[in-house]
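How a chain folds remains the central question behind the approach discussed here. No coordinates are needed to read the tokens, only the vocabulary itself. For completeness, the protein is quoted in full, as a sequence line and a line of structure tokens:
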Amino acid sequence: MFSQFSQSPITWHFESRQAGSVFSDRDCLPDTNPLSEFWLGVPVTLLTHNSHGEHISGPPTEVRSRWTLTNLYLLFTCPYEVLYLKPDPDTFRETNKLWQWDVAEVFVCPHSDNIRRYKEFEVSPQGEWVDVDVDLDSLNHEDGWVWTSGIEVASRIDDQSCIWYGSMRIPFAPINPRPVAPGNLLRANFFRWHELQRTSAAWIPTMKPTFHVPEVFGLIVLEKDSPTITNSRNQTEFRRDERPVRNA
């Protein structure tokens, strides 16, 4: 089956609770074009339910992932009806409480015994970002805000197709102390908040009002194989109007 947005083959990951991340032998800046050489043919994970497990009508959010020896890459493809954006966006500094507006998110940590300690990353349609060191057992959650990961992000709004794209480049060192290698597993979940009504989308529903339920996290599998490049043609012109890349 093909994605109606990218015309790339879709690998369905919801039932398996695993999302493949495809190896790349080169690093690059965050790329918001799913038809670029970097992203073309990479398997897609779909967010088809909200956080309570209810099926979402309309086109789903798509997530792609790649990895190198130094970075984890994510690309969110987010269809929308109306964007709910923060006024006066600041793309140079971390935006506290960014989840009050439209965002795409990943929670991720090594596959280890302490599932209540993980990292949270967010990107908005305007290129704002958040990185948080989450410790659910800590009495002072403010400590997580001073943590800096070195994340880089880019975003792009295609207002003709009503799709926004958010890309992340996350250094492995702050999130995964082990040597990076094919077959490594990362515990993770993908989410999205959107619209004024605060509609949610989740890869694996938490079945609770919060996204912070690490017990239900799935797995990102670092795969060695390169993606199969297809010759499928995009049906709409790609307009490169990305927001500038910002470093954390």
Observations:
- The chain is about 0% helix and 35% strand.
